[in-house]
Amino acid sequence: MTTTEKSIKSIAPINIAVVKYWGKENEEFNTPLNSSISVTLHVKDMCAETEVVADSKFKEDKLFLNGREEDIQKNKRVQRCLNMVRSKPTLKRKHNEDATPIVRCHITSANNFPTAAGLASSAAGYACLAKCLGHVYNYEKDLSVVARLGSGSACRSMLGGFVKWEKGKCPEGSDSCAVQIANEHHWPELKVIILVVSSNQKSVGSTEGMRRSVTTSQLLKYRAEHCVPGHIDKIEKAIHSKDFPMFAELTMKESNQLHAICQDTYPPLRYMNTTSHDIVNLITKYNAAKLKAAYTFDAGANAVLFTLDEFYEELLSTLLKYFPFTNTEIESWINMPSSQVKELKTKAAELPDVCIHEDALQRIICTMPGPGASVVVSDE
Ligand code: PMV
Predict the structure, then answer these.
(1) Which residue of 94, 97, 121, 256 sits 20 to 30 Å from the alpha carbon of 370, by its own alpha carbon?
(2) Largest Cα–Cα separation, the chain
(3) Which residue ranges of the chain lie beneath pLDDT 70?
(4) pLDDT in tens, 268-292
């Protein structure tokens, strides 16, 4: 018996939302209650890598995540992605092509950053999966829709730079997809600093958290109808015109609103911890005279900060001063040579009333906007 084998590898970035998605309109199709906007972060600092091998001699599909085999049949999200790319057009079905056996595949995926700690690890993973499955199964439609079926925010990791996930109008979500606002080269002065506060798994996953908010939070409904459309409009304009103060203010207000909804949820959801609030306090004081940095938090304790080139060293230095690291192995704590870290120490801003929080951060990742999911190797 002859076999046909196809294999493909892809890498995909994480993204950080500046207009947040929180709440599903339809759980089965994974469509959102509101549109959202994110910045894709560079794959050189954090990415997921996935390989899909499809072979007609495979008896079943298999899934390996970070080196461990998972039960792929029980994984509804992966099943939804597989069903989408393997579904045949109605036209072919009429010609009895349903009898053709499905070519099974083996999926291997790994992340180089903490899984489920509010760093959108699933977004990178499902963007990779969609990219690979699209190639292996010759799927010609929008792959951001396939990624969305795995994890909503994953659709935004398909594209680089500044990305909008359009809520869409079709009930089954065929137009609930990602569109690029501007590519990763659009705003080179914009810098991103990730403060890893915790690499623990979040206590309530985003799907369960959203479900709880949708059923109990009145604020969530108000936000989706009355706040998000204006925020989307303004932040798109701020991105196009590189208006940092506008971008920074909206980013922080959006983050505050997401966590206010979490607090309004019953029972309440708590993703930010005391260190997260200490970071908010530091950035607020740092911005007292002029907006120089913005914070944002997803469903986890880790902070993502935005700043501009001109404030970058001062901000980093200020962070090192108020959140110092006492261990000697600086290289495993910040992705920057220790000589550069030493030089930075002199540039910190003086912030009255801000306490020093020793060893409160597990890691600092300095990064920037980057490209979307891409294929690494293809041997067809
Ligand atoms: O894509 P999910 O189901 O992991 O949800 C992500 C939700 C937030 O990260 C909190 C916000 C967002 O828009 O990414």
Answers:
(1) 256
(2) 76
(3) 1-3, 88-99, 113-120, 199, 201-202, 328, 377-380
(4) 999 999 999 999 999 999 999 999 9
Ligand 1 pocket: which of 153, 220, 271 to mutate (most atoms <8 Å of CB)? 153
Give tens-digit pLDDT for 31-77.
999 999 999 999 998 999 999 999 999 999 999 998 899 999 999 99
Residue whose structure tokens are 């309440």: 268
* Measured distance CA(49)–CA(67) in Å, rounded: 12
- Burial (CB < 10 A; 0-12, 13-18, 19+), residue 86, is middle
Q: How far is ligand 1, taken at its centre, from the CA of residue 8, in Å?
A: 27
**The pTM of the whole model exceeds 0.70:** yes
- The pLDDT value recorded for residue 373 is 98
Q: Are 220 and 23 in contact (CB under 8 A)?
A: yes
Rounded to 5, what percent of the chain is helix, strand, coil? 40, 25, 40
Name beta bridge partners: 12. 48
- Classified as helix, coil or strand, 352 is coil
**347 Cα to the center of ligand 1, angstroms:** 35
**Is 279 in contact with 304 (CB distance < 8 Å)?**
no
Atom of ligand 1 nearest to the CA of 299: 10
Asked if residues 254 and 20 have their Cβ atoms less than 8 Å apart, the reply is yes
Using DSSP's 3-state secondary structure scheme, residue 45 falls into coil
